[in-house]
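To illustrate this point, we now present one chain and its tokenised fold:
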Amino acid sequence: MSRFRFPVSRLPDEALLSGLATGDPELAVTFVRRFQHTVFGVAIAVVGDPQLAEDVAQQTFERAWRHAQIYDARRGSVRTWLTAIAHNLAIDAVRSRRPEPVAPEDLEAVLGVVSETPERHALADEASSLLRAAVAELPPEQGRALVMAGIYGMTAQQVADSEKIPLGTAKTRIRSAMGKLRTTLAAPKRGDHVE
């Protein structure tokens, strides 16, 4: 039975946070239950992996417990403070993860996706946009060979084995793709004035 005069679930967020800081188990459980869906939602939206999102959510509540005493209500609500912690931890988790390599058979789909999305504009600067567009214009077999060698660091022999082609053909595809990219990226752009 609760030692409080009214249900702890009706306590304001700030009171629950203070209880979390003092280590009160009943207030801590109520605090986590109140915000667990929000924190997990922020984490899953950023990381996209349920297991990693659970880890981020747990780290968020641990950090809130350790830093509850520095919460300042003038800078925002407890929910805002907690979601900012979750968002920052989720971004850190994404940055620290090693990128998962794309299987060579999936490269054609990756190369074909050069879409105009807000995320793409936010993440790509002009040079990477030009490079992506140039790679997308390559014949698919040359684009795959170039990405396997240039991005994933595969040797020409590994490209040949993966594509089930002779070594010479793999080398030719990589060399041809590099030559076409060099030509495309070195060509003057509209608006560039050559004098």
Notes: Residues 25-47 form the longest helix (23 residues). Residues 57 and 134 are 40 Å apart (CA to CA). The radius of gyration is 26 Å.
